[in-house]
Amino acid sequence: MKQMEIDRLNLVERLSLPTPALFSKIRNIGLLLAAVSSAILAAPVTLPAIVTTIAGYLALASSVASAVSQVAVKG
């Protein structure tokens, strides 16, 4: 697929096309880190403030990495 064709794709079309292997790995790692940080944030025990702060930032960063990696298209 040429760059001009990739530029004209809408979001639904981009999501349906195959993702390169590197971005698939980044997406999967991001999903794993998001799950871990969500488990830390939802823990029933009281954790230090720094741990919950780091878990919040990790959840945000991993979610963004997963979303960006999902819309990458083989070119």
Overview of the structural elements:
With 75 residues, the protein is mainly alpha-helical. The protein has helices spanning 3-7, 11-16, 21-41, 49-70. Helix 3 (21-41) packs antiparallel against helix 4. It is elongated and about 50 Å long. The termini are close together. The mean pLDDT is 91.
Outline of the structure:
72% of the residues lie in helices and 0% in strands. The chain has 75 residues and is mostly helical.
C-alpha end-to-end distance: 5 Å
Per DSSP E runs of 2 or more residues, the count of β-strands stands at: 0
Overall mean confidence score, pLDDT:
91
Number of helices: 4
Rg, Å, rounded: 16 Å
SSE string, helices as H and strands as E: HHHH
Structure classification = mainly alpha
Poorly predicted regions: none
Shape: elongated
Helix content: over 70%
β-strand amount:
under 5%
Task: Let me know the largest β-sheet.
Answer: none
Helix-strand layout with pairing:
Layout: H1 3-7, H2 11-16, H3 21-41, H4 49-70
Helix pairs in contact: 3-4
Features:
75 residues, 4 helices, mainly alpha
